[in-house]
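Predict the structure of VanZ-like domain-containing protein.
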Amino acid sequence: MQRQGSEDGSAVTRVRVAGGVLLVAHLALVAWITLRPLDVPWVSAANLRPFAGIRADLALDPETAARRIAAGLGLLAPLGVLLPMAGGRLAVSPLGSLLRTTAAGVLLSLGIELLQTGVPGQVVDIDSIMLNSLGVALAHLAVVPATRARFRRRAETRRRAAVLREDHAQGRTPTIPRVGIAP
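Done. Here is the predicted structure for VanZ-like domain-containing protein.
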C-alpha cells in the first residue's frame, strides 16, 4: 500500500514539475513576443475603449480579423492549462479553479500591458487584456476539468487495485462467530 501511494505521489510530482517548466518557458516566450521594441514608422494611440480594437479588426477582411482575434485569444491561452498543471491538485472546486486561473491570466495580461508602456513601438490595448483573459478561460474550460477527472479516475482505480492485491496477499480477515451472552 505504501508503494502505491508513492507511485501516485511521484506521478503528481512529475506533472507539477513538467507544468512548472512549461509555464516558465511559455512566459519567457510571451515576454519576448510582447516586450521587445518594434521598429515602426508610426504608432497608433493607446486603446482604452473596450471593444474598439475588436470592432476595428472586424472591419478588416475576414482572414485578417480572424488572425488578429485568434492571436489575442491564443497568446496567454496555454496558461489556462499550465497554471493548474503546475499547481498539481486534483481535488479542487472546478469553479474556484477557473476563477483563480482566469484571475491570474487577467493580472498577467494587465502587467504585460503596463510594461508595454515603456517599450518603443508597443501600445496599451484594453482589448488585448479581454482577449487574453478569454483565451485563458476557454483553454481552462476545454482541458482542465476533463483531465482532472481522468487523473482522479486513474488514481481511484489504482487505489482499488492496491486494496484488492493487499486483500489477496494476506487472505480474508478472520471473523469471530457471535456467541450469546450467558444470563
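The chain has a mean pLDDT of 87.
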